[in-house]
Specification:
mainly alpha; about 10% strand; two-stranded antiparallel sheet; 4 helices; Non-ribosomal Peptide Synthetase Peptidyl Carrier Protein, Chain A
């Protein structure tokens, strides 16, 4: 079997294609949730905290250094915990929505029907039952 035919067989298996589709849909879904967080959730939180953007929350370790002309000589060193907080909210919302979708999917999925035993097992059971009589 050639390398190309093996690769084609690998790619055309159902689970590889399903995984690729899931990755693309997941990436698009992540963008939707990020837009929700950035455009709706964070402005509401900013409004509740006095109009300061959550992404701008930070703890300044050393402020920016300016020269006499007002030109920045050294950049500010700060711990930007607001960006971290915003990313955590983004992750929690994505995880919550995925959990709810999976929960609904599992609820809708029908319970597997018990498979009938093979013919030889049925025949052996019938023989056993007739011997008991």
């Amino acid at each position: 079997m050639s390398l190309i035919s093996e690769f084609r067989e690998f790619v055309l298996r159902g689970n590889v294609i399903d995984l690729a589709v899931a990755v693309v849909i997941g990436a698009a879904f992540g963008k939707i949730i990020t837009a929700l967080v950035d455009g709706i959730v964070m402005p509401v939180i900013s409004m509740l905290t006095g109009g300061v953007s959550v992404a701008d929350w930070k703890f300044v370790i050393t402020p920016a250094q300016l020269d006499a002309a007002g030109k920045q000589v050294a950049a500010e060193v700060a711990i930007r915990y607001g960006m971290f907080f915003q990313t955590v909210i983004d992750f929690v919302l994505i995880a919550l929505v995925i959990f709810m979708v999976l929960k609904a999917y599992n609820r809708m999925r029908a319970a597997p029907v018990a498979a009938l035993p093979p013919e030889d097992v049925l025949l052996l059971r019938e023989i056993r039952d007739s011997l008991r009589k």
